[in-house]
Design goal:
Elements: H1 2-10, E1 23-29, H2 48-55, E2 58-60, E3 63-64, H3 70-79, H4 83-86, H5 95-98, H6 105-110, E4 115-120, E5 134-136, E6 171-174, H7 178-181, H8 184-195, E7 203-209, E8 216-219, H9 247-253, H10 256-263, H11 267-294, E9 301-307, E10 312-313, E11 319-320, H12 326-329, E12 333-336, E13 353-355, E14 359-360, H13 364-372, H14 386-390, E15 400-403, E16 410-413, E17 417-421, E18 427-431, H15 449-456, E19 480-481, E20 494-500, E21 506-511, E22 517-523, E23 528-533, E24 538-543, E25 549-554, E26 560-564
Parallel strand pairs: 1-7, 1-9, 2-13, 3-14, 4-5, 4-7, 6-8, 20-26
Antiparallel strand pairs: 2-12, 9-12, 10-11, 15-16, 16-17, 17-18, 19-25, 20-23, 21-22, 21-24, 24-25
Helix pairs in contact: 2-11, 8-11
């Protein structure tokens, strides 16, 4: 009997069934640009944990996001479908309206024997409960954010410049511990608990850190290493940087946020808040990496870390995202595989590898399925990165695309070049090798006409049309009883949809800046009316027959709807 047992132990593992698949720890950071130590974007940043993860695997220094905003980028990463394939280009669209049947990463891995669980922000402000086995907070609530401490009185630092301004554009230290702050600390705590337990099934574990997304409020100990007097302005800032841009580039570059921040004397405080938020997110990453390394899953877990897009802090006279310049498109991407962990790469990754090939976060879906040894998802638009994980200098004849919110507007990255194309035909061209901050637009230079034509020819031939969000998907404006104030319109125009739920016809009035009422027509019972409006505009609803005022709304900073209640 003992001899038989000894012989059985010598037989290959395939006799007993398939080898256990690797766990996957899939870590996202929100709005993180190259301001991490190992990418050199800011010399003042403090990111020891991002740096140690990079040193333990492969760091991609020329990785780019699929979309220049959270929703298109995260949807593309999680579905494997590029915006120009799916038609989802901007934050205001709804993933499940646009792609009702798409299988996202956790569900695809569930279909192939994995247990898929997660915490924090992975998709754009929803969880997609049907795709997960378990989530924190509870997946049924579709709210990926645990309790997070914020100041009692807001704004704390940056006064609102007007109704056009995103309410979360603010920053400052909080007198709180990490645990009292909650948020990403709670996410890290929950993820760490999962990593401390040996799993019965292979695990797809998603960890979504919200910082350094706005608002930049974190415990004050993360602000302390960045005294305001020592804050340096961004390396990529150049005062006249827009002078050589085409009209589309100039329109998308200079925005009101940066001008407002400068006027309020908050530029360095904003940089300080971003650095503090990165420092905090890095510390939370450290808790997760420590839990993995001390737990029972260290030798069979693939670690992938990425950011959905970068962030401007003054370069191109811009604050925020939504551009196709490198400050937004280029993101951290790190991959680490232990030896004998993944069927697709049994030798694992070499510690300290650095790859400068132009890759895209779309490439993560096909790479992970190949690594795990599960079938390829046929509609994936990305490419398998395993050749680069084996050899960071391997041939890579591909470009990387980042899409803007209009079909046909995108940024293209190669090893040494960047080409920007706008839907109206405007173009920009940069040699990144000599001009990493994209200060000199070469698109109008005859000397570079051949390169321009070469890159232009590599673009997609078709772009899926923009899929308008339904009425249901639009945010609702607050219905306020009684007459409205005078309008204070400030910002660009967009549609507002008025929905009459009453049994009688109503009349729509715009309150002029002088407080007068100007009629914009009637809305019959059960009908809707689309009306162009601007941030700060006040709209009043009255009974059509009597003229009696029923209520009003004040338009915010984006397309929305007003439900006129029964």
């Amino acid at each position: 009997m003992r001899l038989l047992l000894a012989l059985l132990l010598l037989l290959p593992s395939s006799v007993f069934g398939e080898k256990q698949k690797p766990n996957i720890l899939f870590i996202a950071m929100d709005d993180l640009n190259d301001w991490i130590g190992c990418m050199g974007g800011n010399s003042q940043t403090i990111t020891p944990n991002l740096d140690r993860l990079a040193k333990s695997g492969v760091l991609f220094t020329n990785a780019h996001c699929p979309g220049a905003a959270c929703n298109p980028s995260r949807t593309a990463i999680m579905t494997g479908l590029s915006p120009h394939t799916s038609g989802l280009y901007e934050n205001g669209q709804n993933m499940r309206e646009t792609l009702p049947d798409a299988k996202i990463l956790p569900q695809y891995f569930r279909d192939h024997g994995y247990r898929s669980i997660g915490s924090g922000k992975m998709l754009h402000y929803f969880i997609d409960a049907r795709s997960w086995d378990e989530y924190f907070p509870e997946k049924e609530k579709e709210n990926p954010f645990p309790f997070t401490l914020y100041p009692k009185t807001r704004p704390l630092s940056l006064p609102r410049g007007g109704p056009w301004q995103y309410v979360e554009t603010d920053w400052g230290p909080l007198d709180a511990t990490d645990e009292e702050f909650g948020g990403d600390f709670s996410v890290a705590k929950w993820i760490s608990k999962q990593l401390s337990v040996k799993q019965a099934k292979p695990l797809f574990l998603a960890c979504g850190f919200y910082r350094p997304h706005e608002p930049w409020f974190v415990p004050k100990k993360y602000f302390e290493p960045f005294p305001l007097k020592d804050i340096k302005l961004p390396l990529g800032y150049k005062e006249n940087d827009l002078d050589d841009l085409p009209p589309s580039g100039k329109r998308i570059g200079s925005n009101r946020y940066f001008a407002h921040i400068q006027n309020e004397g908050q530029w360095k405080k904003g940089i300080q808040g971003y650095l503090a938020s990165i420092h905090f997110a890095d510390a939370m990453l450290g808790k997760v990496l420590d839990a993995l390394e001390k737990g029972p899953n260290a030798d069979n877990t693939i670690v992938v870390l990425w950011s959905d897009h970068g962030w401007h802090l003054g370069s191109k006279q811009h604050w925020q995202k939504f551009t196709a310049w490198r400050a937004v498109t280029r993101v951290p991407l790190m991959v680490r595989l232990p030896k004998n962990c993944a069927p697709g790469l049994p030798e694992g990754t070499a510690a300290g590898s650095v790859c400068n090939r132009p890759v895209n976060l779309l490439d993560l879906f096909p790479t992970l399925t190949k690594l795990a040894g599960i079938p390829h998802k046929k509609d994936n638009d990305g490419r398998n990165l395993i050749p680069l994980l084996k050899n960071s200098a391997a041939p890579w004849p591909h470009t990387s695309l980042t899409h803007l919110n209009k079909p046909g507007s995108y940024g293209m990255s190669t090893k040494d070049w960047r080409y920007l194309h706008y839907s109206d035909g405007d173009e920009e061209l940069y040699n990144i090798k000599s001009d990493p901050f994209e200060w000199t637009n070469l698109a109008t230079s005859q000397k570079h006409a051949k390169k321009l034509a070469e890159l232009r020819a590599l673009a997609p031939k078709k772009f899926a049309p923009f899929k308008e969000p339904s009425l249901k998907a639009l945010p609702s404006l607050k219905w306020r009883r009684g007459s409205g104030p005078a309008s204070k319109p400030d910002g660009g125009s967009f549609p507002v949809i008025f929905v009459n739920r009453r049994k009688r016809t109503v009349e729509l009035f715009w309150k002029t800046p002088k407080g007068d009422r100007q009629s914009y027509g009637i809305i019959k019972p059960g009908k809707t009316k689309s009306q162009q409006s601007r941030p700060g505009a006040a709209w009043e609803i009255a009974e059509a027959e009597s003229g009696k005022t029923l209520g009003h709304c004040i338009v915010g900073d984006r397309k929305a709807k007003l439900i006129i209640p029964r």
